[in-house]
Design a protein that fits this description.
By secondary structure, this protein is an alpha/beta fold. About 30% of the residues lie in helices and about 15% in strands. Bound molecules: threonylcarbamoyladenylate (TXA) and magnesium ion. Magnesium ion binds near residues 140 and 148.
Length: about 325
């Protein structure tokens, strides 16, 4: 049985106790729910991979309460510090060399010399990190390759019975995963996400290098991801009769499925994963979904990235 834990002081103490026992708790963050385990505990980390059915070569993000805690795990560059000062706590993940004295399970990095670290802004994630007192490994709390969860019921639908508990934080405000930046050695966009590329570039005063999609040394960018059961057609100005339509702006969707009637990309990101799930329900097995065009700027880049992966041929 997976228990739903209330966001109270007692609930947080219970969630921290579960983590200390090496078990798993789904934790709300401002982006999506994470499947949290003790990042120092090999068995806890192994059970994250097992619960998600994730290929073990795919490394996990380590969540810490602040930059000071991050500096104990990875070696920062000046650019990394600049980004951390500007965007932490928040939806930004930095991939940096692991320190030789970092206390992390080697399973977290899947054998890579780098680790992905992030300081979440969600108050419950912050409280849980403080109550637990150590680094928390947390991939998105969905079965591998499926749509990320932005509500407790999404976690329950995907992982119910496979994890100890879900800390109830309601709906995630950002709704799309963190932006991931690597430094090898120049700042490189590894995954578009909750912090727009334009904001990162303005902070650094330079253009981010593009990640080579064929480079599997930076994994996790598997092409088919976020996949609902239905097929998906992108940039559809109008739907065909047999398609469930997700709209944007003036392209009104079906049954209220408009990512943002006012074409607000922040609102669209927050709605994306929930609407993909809702459209999938409406379409049914073997059904079809069409999605209106979303502009390729700001958070639209992350939205389009997730939509392209959701639409990609499944392996
Ligand atoms: O918003 C988020 O980032 C959410 C919340 C829970 O924090 N987490 C999340 O984790 O999206 P996940 O595991 O679903 O995605 C993490 C991505 C994967 O694509 C993984 O391959 C990449 O981060 N990653 C982790 N460590 C890496 C490393 N050392 N080098 C390159 N990529 C790495
Ligand atoms: Mg994920």
């Amino acid at each position: 049985m997976t228990q739903l834990i209330a966001p109270t002081d007692e609930g947080l103490a219970e969630a921290a106790r579960i983590l200390r026992a090496g078990k798993l708790v789904a934790m709300p963050t401002e982006t999506v729910y994470g499947l949290a385990g003790d990042a120092r505990n090999d068995r806890a980390v192994a059970s994250i991979f097992e619960a998600k059915g994730r290929p073990s070569f795919n490394p996990l993000i380590v969540h810490v309460p602040d930059r000071e805690a991050a500096e104990k795990l990875v070696s920062f560059t000046d650019d990394a510090r600049r980004l951390a000062s500007a965007f932490w706590p928040g939806p930004l993940t930095l991939v940096l060399p692991v320190r030789y004295d970092a206390v992390l399970s080697p399973l977290v990095t899947a054998g890579l010399p780098t680790a992905a670290v992030r300081v979440p802004a969600h108050p419950l994630a912050q409280k849980l990190l403080h109550a637990f007192g150590g680094p928390i490994a947390a991939p998105s709390a969905n079965p591998s390759g499926r749509v990320s969860p932005t509500r407790p019921e999404h976690v329950l639908a995907g992982l119910g019975g496979r994890i100890e508990a879900i800390l109830d934080g309601g709906t995630c405000a950002v709704g799309i995963e963190s932006t991931i930046v690597g430094f090898d050695p120049v700042p490189t966009l590894l995954r578009p996400g909750g912090v727009p590329q334009e904001a990162l570039e303005a902070c650094l005063g330079t253009v981010l290098a593009a990640h080579d999609a064929a480079d599997i040394t930076a994994p996790g960018q598997l092409m088919s991801h976020y996949a609902p059961r239905a097929s998906i057609r992108l940039s559809a100005d109008t739907p065909f009769a047999d398609e469930v339509y997700i709209g944007f702006g003036s392209s009104a969707g079906q049954d209220g499925l408009n990512l943002s009637p006012t074409a607000d990309l922040v609102e669209a990101a927050a709605n994306l994963f929930h609407f993909l799930r809702a459209a999938d329900e409406l379409a049914g097995t073997g059904g079809k979904i069409a999605v209106a065009p979303v502009p390729e700027k700001g958070l639209g880049r992350a939205i389009n990235d997730r939509l392209r992966r959701a639409a990609a041929p499944r392996s």
